[in-house]
Amino acid sequence: METTKKLSHLKMYGAGHASGGSYQNVSIKGEGTVGEGLQSERCRIFGTGLFLGDAEINRLKIFGEHEVAGDLSARSANVIGTLKVGGSMRFATMRLKGLAEIGNGAAGEQCHIKGSLTVGGDCETELLHVTGCINVAGLLNAGDINIHLRYDRSRVKEIGGTSITVRRKPGFLKRKAGTLSAELIEGDAIYLEYTEADIVRGKHVEIGPGCKIGKIEYQTSCKSHEKSTVQEHIKI
């Protein structure tokens, strides 16, 4: 009869360093560094954490600052603070209040951002809701995309989705108002505010205030706000 080896727990308080490996629970309170190849059912970080390699975690919670030098895989990731991933990130659900920087691509099911998200490659999710700022070097692809521009300038090379909504959300702080720029935005139902795009292509396209669009290619309907400029309309 085979027996399942029980995984140990890793607890770090103050400042410390531990080797990678498989753990049941990982808890860092203070400053903690974990070596390459971490696997854990649950990981909670209060303070500053550093994983020197890839990490596979079922439930990840961060309250503070955390960096993963390699790839990160997490079924659920909840971040209040800062997350930096040197490689790629995969998740089922990600909730962020703060700032996240992902060096390569990101892929998951649901992504809720309040703050700033930067992805160095493509970003693919079923649902993406952002309040704040988003920067994607490649393709942003999601079924439901809802972006509330809060501050600074958001940049995405290409956006593709079923439903795409971009609005400006005013803030109570006197900061630079948010804008979005993209080369191509393509979807079924599209509504845009304060967006600059070379091409917007969709079935139903509505351009709100503050937009500068090079060309709109639409199938069914197209509306443009008087305080936006569109160089060319084409029904396809």
From TrEMBL:
Name of this chain's protein: Polymer-forming cytoskeletal protein
The species this protein was found in: Bacillus velezensis (strain DSM 23117 / BGSC 10A6 / LMG 26770 / FZB42)
Species classification: Bacteria, Bacillati, Bacillota, Bacilli, Bacillales
